[in-house]
Amino acid sequence: RALSVKQHRSMSQLKYKNTFIYTRFYSTSIAYLEKERAVAIKAVERASRVCQAVFKRLVTEETMTKKDKSPVTVADFSAQAVVNSILENDFPDDPVVGEEDSKDLQGEEGRVLREKVVDLVNTATEHPMSSDEILRAIDRGLYAGGSTGRHWTLDPIDGTKGFLRGEQFAVCLALIIDGRVRLGVLGCPNLPWDMSNPDGERGVLMVAVEGQGAFQRKLNSSSNEEVPISVSSVIDTKDAVFCESVEAGHSNHSDNANIAKILGISKPSVRMDSQCKYAAVARGNAEIYLRLPVSDTYVEKIWDHGAGNIVIHEAGGRVADIHGKSLDFSRGRTLSANQGVVAAGAQIFDTVIAAVQETLKYKSQI
Ligand SMILES: Nc1ncnc2c1ncn2[C@@H]1O[C@H](COP(=O)(O)OS(=O)(=O)O)[C@@H](OP(=O)(O)O)[C@H]1O
Ligand SMILES: [Mg+2]
Ligand SMILES: [Mg+2]
Ligand SMILES: [Mg+2]
């Protein structure tokens, strides 16, 4: 991945003799989106640490009642500020489509929340940030998205409900260029490194760049070692495991169950919050991710699927909506051209989509 010593050497020799040749050689010899990849990993790692700190300090504090949603709000805002300020530093011209905005942190009404956020962000950044700088960083996420140029999309905490329960959540960052996801990073602080040892080491980061494959590495580890990942090799859907949202309000559990029945699946579904579902399919812990819509009006958001989408593709899988249509990230902040989401390994994907179609056809007839 990194440039070899030999490559460095030949580059400088070419530069010395001929600047033009050097430039061409240089552009083809460093990996596509190398810097973006490194910066995105750093940003997701920092934000994941902030979320974990919030969970430790606030969610588990005895004084916090279960119904109080403020910890997750503090973590959402802080993580978005951390990621956006890192992106701004390295890529000042890149806009961001982020889930959160600073409205709730403004003025006297937002003072208490704002002070907590300022405190947290400053434990994670290299240089202290003022409260105004932090609000501005959060609002770098207001970009409208679209089909041309570069923009990032960020979900500072995906699976907020999972986060509060101490279960799965993910920090999700993706880079979209000309309407297509080219790079994705998923930070999954509570995901076991080895699913067969669920009480063992936790914290996984998955990263994928278009055309370069998908990898996992330990989150917040001093080692940069990356392990290639790929989807399951199961080709008979009878042997498959599928995953779905924990919340019945986010995905239609009964439609998902009918699809599983058509596919001959007998194992129970794995219910998991957040884009960790994409992570589970990408490394073969499950074969299928079903997200059948609950309502006709809900439109999926690009930050809920961008990173997961490319991680699955680069791991040898496919992602589409319930009609089998690829997710269209060029429409702005939402996936307005799509309905629901289905992900699976490439070999079983068409069979899964056919079962989805059959279920929906049957439903429309009754
Ligand atoms: N009605 C409806 N349908 C589909 N999706 C919805 C819906 N309402 C919300 N959301 C989005 O779901 C995101 C969380 O999805 P999950 O798969 O993690 O759901 S769950 O937590 O497992 O229940 C969640 O992301 P976060 O807000 O980042 O947690 C929402 O963006
Ligand atoms: Mg989300
Ligand atoms: Mg979120
Ligand atoms: Mg949300």
UniProtKB/TrEMBL annotation:
Keywords from the named record: Hydrolase, Magnesium, Metal-binding, Signal
Matching SUPFAM superfamilies: Carbohydrate phosphatase
The enzyme's E.C. designation: 3.1.3.7
Cofactor(s) required, per the database record: Mg(2+)
InterPro entries membership: DPNP, Inositol_monoP_metal-BS, Inositol_monoP_superfamily, Inositol_monophosphatase-like
Keyword field contains Metal-binding: yes
GO molecular function ontology, one term from the record: 3'(2'),5'-bisphosphate nucleotidase activity
Record field: catalytic activity: 3'-phosphoadenylyl sulfate + H2O = adenosine 5'-phosphosulfate + phosphate; adenosine 2',5'-bisphosphate + H2O = AMP + phosphate; adenosine 3',5'-bisphosphate + H2O = AMP + phosphate
A Pfam family that the UniProt record links to this protein: Inositol_P
Gene3D superfamilies linked to this entry: 3.40.190.80, Fructose-1,6-Bisphosphatase, subunit A, domain 1 (3.30.540.10)
Record's keyword annotation contains Magnesium: yes
Family recorded in the similarity comment: Belongs to the inositol monophosphatase superfamily.
Protein name as annotated: 3'(2'),5'-bisphosphate nucleotidase
Protein's organism: Coemansia umbellata
Source lineage: Eukaryota, Fungi, Fungi incertae sedis, Zoopagomycota, Kickxellomycotina
Gene (UniProt): MET22
